[in-house]
Amino acid sequence: MLAAESAKSIDTAGGRATFIDLADYPAAVYNGDNEEAVDLLETMRALKAAFNAHDALLIAIPEYNRSIPLSW
Asked: 66 to each of 6, 52, 69, how far by Cα in Å?
């Protein structure tokens, strides 16, 4: 919710923000070292294009018990 509200605030202030939910970009584990050797999924190409189309990136992840998620 914080990321979505941040995007709205940027738009309201005259900027251009795109809210991206990683759940909309299913993918296997990505390794940038072999990006050229392994064909990237089309979803990863679309996500990379979305990142490259902007000047800044805000990442928001949930906090569990005052710590980072265990899936990291």
From this structure: 21, 32, 9
Q: What is the C-alpha separation between 25 and 47, in angstroms, rounded?
A: 7
Distances (CA, A) of 1 to 4, 5, 59, 65: 5, 6, 12, 18
Is a pLDDT exceeding 80 seen at residue 11?
yes
Confidence (pTM):
0.58
Q: In whole angstroms, give the CA distance from residue 54 to residue 29.
A: 23
The pLDDT score that the predictor gives to residue 42 is: 80
Q: Cβ(47)–Cβ(25) under 8 Å?
A: yes
Range among 12-16, 33-37, 38-42 rated most confident: 12-16
The whole-angstrom separation of Cα 7 and Cα 20 is: 10
